[in-house]
Amino acid sequence: MYKVYYNNRFIYIGADIQPILEKKINRKLTGTFNIREEWEKFKMDETCKSIWMHGHAKGIWNKFKAMFLKVEAAGGLVKNSNGDYLLIFRNKKWDLPKGKLEKKETFEMAALREVKEECGVTDLKIVSPLCTSYHIYENEGWFLLKRSHWYSMDTTFTAEPVPQQEEGIEKAVWAKPAQIKNYMEDMFPSIKDVLEEHLPK
Question: What is this structure's pTM?
Fold first, then answer.
């Protein structure tokens, strides 16, 4: 199953979906359907919040992703030695530090570099991969599909993070797990999903 975010809307691709999610689907596409035409309809119809392209996940996904320019990114869910988690505020949204890969970088290298650059946090260590998220956005008339690779990170750094203002980051803060839900009202759905799935319960 693939889940792709487009603004505050969703596209699910695959044969199976959790029953709780199926109840939230506005349109379910089955049998034979034109993937490009269905994307165009979805893009234009803002009243449709979610569609499910039902079928063989890999086959549909390969055709779907071929319609877009690709962007690779990586970032981190960072916990310090006090048990606090790192958040940034950019483009009027609370977010996690992440950014595009540079030449010859691995995903792990990019994730570590982005956290350090965007927040001034040092002594970072990757604990494990977390997940991969996908979202579509428009840039100068082109629609791009960004794949973000997320990693769990630990650090002994507990000082105030320093937001990279030249990248549009207005704030960078440490937050207790119990506090993070207070930030979620102003957060992209893809980031909410990462946090809700991987923060300690």
Answer: 0.92
